[in-house]
Amino acid sequence: STAGWRWHGACYSLLRDPPIGQHRLQNHLQKNHKESMLKLHTKRAFTLIELMIVIAIIAIIAAIAIPNLIEARKHGNESAAIGSLKAISSAQSLFREGDKEGDGTLDYGTLTELADQTLVDGILGSGTKQGYNFTATGGSQAQFTWDAQGQPSVPNTTGDRYFYTDHTGVIFYTTTMAFSASGAGFNQGPAAPVGQ
Question: CA spacing 20 to 30 A to 14: which of 30, 103, 123, 129?
Answer without folding.
Answer: 30
